[in-house]
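Hey, quick one: can you model this chain's 3D structure?
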Amino acid sequence: MVLSEPYWDHHIPLPKLGPLHSRLVTAFVALICFINSYNGDFVFDDSEAIINNKDLNPDTPLSNIWKNDFWGSNLSSNSSHKSYRPLTVLTFRINYLLAGGLHPIGFHVLNVALHCVISVLMIDVFAILIGSLVHDGRGVKLNLSPKASFLAALFFAAHPVHTESVAGIVGRADLLCALFFQLSFLVYCKAFQGGDKKFPVLWIFSSILLCAVAMLCKEQGITVLVSENMYPFERVAGQIKLSLFLPKDLWTDFYFLFSTQIGGLVSSGLLMRLALLFLGGSFLLYARWRIMGTGPPSFTEVDNPASFAENVILRIVNYNYYYSLNAWLLLCPWWLCFDWSMGCVPLIKSATDWRIVWPLLLWCCLMGLVYQALCSQDSNKRRTLTFGLVLLVIPFLPASNLFFRVGFVIAERVLYLSSAGYCLILAYTVGYCSCHWKKHKVCAATLTLLCVNVARSAQRSQHWRSEQSLFTSALSVCPLNAKVHYNVGKNLADRGNQSAAVKYYREAVRLHPKYVHAMNNLGNILKERNELEEAEELLSSAVHIQPDFAAAWMNLGIVQNSLKKFDKAEQSYWNAIRFRKKYPDCYYNLGRLYADLNRSIDALNAWRNATMLKPDHSLAWNNMVILLDNTGNLAQAELIGKEALKILPKDHTIMFSLANVLGKQEKYKESEGFFLNALKINPNVASCHGNLAVLYHRWGKLDLAKRHYELSLRLDPNAPGTKENYNMLKRKLEQRQRTVG
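Sure thing. Here's the predicted structure for all 741 residues.
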């Protein structure tokens, strides 16, 4: 079947560019929208997926990316989010290798480049969806809608809702998924190159394989098979009008439909294609389910409150309200936020809530589009709107809560593919308006919309350059979101502004009284400010709300230790270890408690456990050396210090402690070597100069002792004991001079 060129394509107020020029312009628009994010930092979820993800480290076996989820947790773990995206993690690992470490520029550049490529490929996808797949006599593919496909691709390239996927490195999953979604669809269309009746099965299997690759980048990739199912059906059944089913002559029309259209499905090979896609999709879904291991992930009420509503009607209403908000983000992407959970979108709880109007309006618009897609006399209009709706709705289904509970309220990144359907419908709207309204007005409106979107995308990608700008930009969009205030506070605390951080942590706890992470962080700051009673109260509340919160138990133990509540502190530490078996920091703090209680053996055992769990735990090693030194076990202290330096050969604090031990054993030469090595690493440590001076003093190298005493006093004039030792040395030197004289 050959479709005519869409009549409205000629009326679109854009110049008719050649294939190369239209692609270059689209890529350029995509580039200028997001290029200012290229040298941004790692922000928000990047810390968990990239910075703290050991699967990126070249020292980690490559096979681990096939066993772990997107965040580096084992898929069999109950705490795993089951986000199985090994190919995305593999690209992160390649970035790490090429950059020689965690340098964000390479990560960002690849994201922007991927968006440019995807935007360019959208021209081909839109051309097929609008004007069908048509070839000339030489087999060259023809674009029957050059202006419409170009305009839709421009809308896609510049849409601000894409910022999270492009400027946020974790959005790489959406970009790769979209890329292989496109490639799978375009390869599938190759099956029709020789006509409907002759198609190579190889193209179908290649399409399914690319769908599998898309799924290994992000789960949403499976939806390409559903979209492909719609494409050949439209080619065969595209001329069917809904008016055939009107009561006038229903049975005659039904017979006509069955004999001429349904019968053609078999001869056209459509049923075989559908069967292959169905079998391939079923296999991929089964494989994906098996990979999940322990079943679907579990989420909490704060992640997706509507899914926990007891009343089914309220649940459905709120889901539909979420859909309307997603639609609004496509229509007016001004209110964008990195996180929409924790009170950002209050639940609709009664029929009198005025917000119930938005789901109703959404469904009225969708029903209107569906009616036009099915009943219009214009086949090109039916085709464009049908595929626009398919591309809008189908990729969004995994995020819709229809099949399983998702871990978010709204996530702009899941609209990356769905926005293509919106852009296709928007391009048709421009073409339709150009046919019926004054073209210069439509042209002005179209250019204004494109320019506004480009400017908004550039502004939004600027927000994503740093956590400070990203988090503060959300305060005006979601002022009721406790997580926004928490992240602003955490960013301030990380930058050393603890006083300002307290304000935001308190607001986060006020908005969400069970926000245990905000309580924990606030308690830590209050602990540092010596406001111990309030810190203990907050941390006690946190562990009461979430009894398995190991970090809060440990921090509570630190506070109780400071309050001299030693028994309670010990119990809190053991609770932390009970809920997190491998917790080296907790063993370290437990050792400090035992040291304060003069339980030296228990302290050494605790610190030894810390170093076994974390061999590079410098503080635990150093404390063992110091404790053994203080208790007179110099030989054992020497052994521990040298063992530690095999693991941490450049740790100047351990060198310093070991040098002191060796000096007490009168191993002056060896002690001197460790002191000097420590000073090479950190030459501005007054105590190291002072103790080296004492060593030289005892060793009889008085001139060197004098020099290092002076260096120590220059760095710290109030260094304890140094001034007295220096005065003793000066008297000794004066006495020696008098004797010589």
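One thing worth noting: Confidence is low (pLDDT under 50) at residues 235-258.
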